[in-house]
Each structure stands twice: as structure tokens, then as C-alpha cells.
Amino acid sequence: MSDLNRDAMANRYGQATSGTSAAVTDQGLRAYMLHIYNYMVLGLAITGFAALGIYMLSMTGDVAAAAKVLRNGVEVPAQLRGSVFLTPLGYALFVSPLKWAIILAPLAMVFVLSFGIQRLRPPVAQLLFWVFSALIGISLASIFMVYTQTSIVRVFFITAASFGALSLWGYTTQRDLTGMGSFLIMGLFGVIIAMLVNLFLQSSALQFIVSVVGVLVFAGLTAWDTQRLKNEYVYGALEGEDAQRSAIMGALSLYLNFINLFTLLLQLLGQREE
């Protein structure tokens, strides 16, 4: 992370720079953004391995190894579909009340990182980000129970290509995207509220609308966040631990955009298990 120390940066808060100092700033910016993307990609890798690992530990084709549940006073194996059963771990994580802890734990981690980042040492913040990525992976393991693995892989690559294009546009465009921020944040809150309402309504039409609007919102946030992170480096005089913390929080922002894009596109394009 020593590359993030910009002692040579002369373009602070929009001050004019010489060709040499501008080149130094540009080199530092590339290193800074590379750190952000490295953090994000490693977080996604942790999420993917955690999701796949938990799924494999949660499913079994052996009736004897399946979790047992009481139905009409009779103990029966916890069947997911056909000859696939939930193991005791799978039942605990996705059926028992523990599932709420799995759902809410990542949200708590986001608040800890967002509001406590300035009080955290960069290594601690980095560790919390890895823990957060693993918790998201545990909660996402359920997608393997709902969607075919082929469609999950297909949607992942669609998401990766879309995210890459949107982030590249946000980084290179000369258009000021600042004005989009307030609109996108309002859209995000609208999507969250609609999702909460649909937990009770269980409307497939509302779910489709939320998924489409959500994809548009997180697509915009991807470009906006990328430009915001670029500008924070160029005009924010970040260096030392401040730059490290900013890189971690930047990775968290882009990571969340990617994960939400992926899950929403999966709802739209994913093929469900029969």
C-alpha cells in the first residue's frame, strides 16, 4: 500500500500542475484504483468460495445424513427436492431462526465499516471486509438451491462484463456524474422499500419491476461510484492510512454494486431448478 502515498502529488484540490506532476498523479491514481479493484475481486472470490462451500456442506443425497424434522408428530428427513436433502448445517442456516442472523449479519458489518472506518486501523478494516465477504457468501449459498448452476455461471459473466463496461465508462467519461448521485440514492431507497413490502405481498409482478429498476439503479451507481473514487483521489489529497481506508471503502462500494447487480440479474435471467 506504499504506492498510495502521494508525497509527490501537486494537483491538490484542483491546483494547476506541470506535466511531470500530472504524470505522477496519474500514476498514483492508477495504483490507487488498482488497489480498489484488487480488494473487490478478492472479496468476490471469498464470497464465491464461501457460497459454494456452504452449499456443498448443506446438501446431501443420503437420507441418513439429512436433518430430521417433525411433521405431524413424525420425524422425516428435511427434503429440498427429489432426492436432495438438507444436512443439519443446511437446515440451521436456511430454515431455522439462525437464518435471520445470516441475513442481518452482513448489514451490521456494513454499518461497522461505514461509520467506524476512521477509527479502524487499515489491517482491521481489511479483515472486516474479508469477513463481510464470507458472510455474504454464506447468505448467497441458497442461490444454488434455487437456480441451475449453468444459469448462475452465465449470469455471473454477464454481470462481470456489464460491471466492467460501466466502471470503465465512469472512470474515463468527461461528463460530471455528480448530479446522478442524489437521484440514484433515492432510487436505491425506493428499491429497498419495495423489496421489504414485497416480503409480505409476494407479488411476482412487483418483484419483476423491482429487479428491473434495481438493475438500472446499481448500473448507474457503478459508474457514479467509480468517478467518485477517482475524484476523491485527485482532489482529496489522500495519502497514508487515509488512502488505505478510502481504498477499502471504495472496494466495499463497488463490491456491493456488483453483488446486487448479480442477484437482480439472476432473478431476471436465472433458470430455476425443477
Describe the structure.
The chain is mainly alpha-helical and 274 residues long. It has one domain. It has helices at residues 19-58, 88-94, 98-116, 122-140, 143-146, 149-172, 178-201, 204-236, 240-269; strands at residues 59-60, 68-71, 74-77, 79-81, 84-86.
Task: List strands and helices in order, with pairings.
Blueprint: H1 19-58, E1 59-60, E2 68-71, E3 74-77, E4 79-81, E5 84-86, H2 88-94, H3 98-116, H4 122-140, H5 143-146, H6 149-172, H7 178-201, H8 204-236, H9 240-269
Helix pairs in contact: 1-2, 1-4, 1-8, 1-9, 3-4, 4-9, 6-8, 6-9, 7-8, 8-9
Shape: elongated
First CA to last CA: what distance?
48 Å
> What fraction of residues sit in β-strands?
5-15%
Report helical residue fraction. Answer: over 70%
pLDDT < 50 stretches: 1-17
Name the strands of the widest sheet in spatial order.
1-5-4
Classify the secondary structure makeup into a structural class.
Answer: mainly alpha
Overall mean pLDDT: 86
**What's the order of the H and E elements?**
HEEEEEHHHHHHHH
**Number of β-strand runs:** 5
Helical run tally? 9
Mind describing the biggest β-sheet? 3 strands, antiparallel
Rounded to an integer in angstroms, the radius of gyration calculated over CA atoms is 22 Å
Q: How many domains make up the 3D coordinates?
A: 1
